[in-house]
What we know:
Blueprint: H1 3-22, H2 41-59, H3 71-74, H4 91-111, H5 114-117, E1 120-123, E2 126-128, H6 129-153
Antiparallel strand pairs: 1-2
Helix pairs in contact: 1-6, 2-4, 2-6
Amino acid sequence: xxxxxxxxxxxxxxxxxxxxxxxxxxxxxxxxxxxxxxxxxxxxxxxxxxxxxxxxxxxxxxxxxxxxxxxxxxxxxxxxxxxxxxxxxxxxxxxxxxxxxxxxxxxxxxxxxxxxxxxxxxxxxxxxxxxxxxxxxxxxxxxxxxxxxxxxxxxxxxxx
Length: 160
């Protein structure tokens, strides 16, 4: 298996787990916080989408699909404290935006050579382009751990 396929498997698994955690949650439940000071899922989803867009754009400039107008401004550190549904997108809109961005990520991943994947990014948390692509899945899984807690707090059974 080549490195692009391995990275794609990581992204696919994160997608599978993340979507399973979200499947039966309502828009209102996306605003449940795992603890005081923890971020609700509605904000986390937007944060993940914006992060993926911006990070892939960093290493593949001008290649990612545009985010919806005003999208990134809704999902900053400053907006994380808001509990107002009107400040954020619906679950359906967030998943749609995710799918569009992930398609862009996968298209960019497929274009990378082994040499490209070894290129340095200047980021300490993802020092190579291959590491940055791989981090997209890890980032989703890290937040998915928080969603597992929220699901249990909402009375949902464990999925995995």
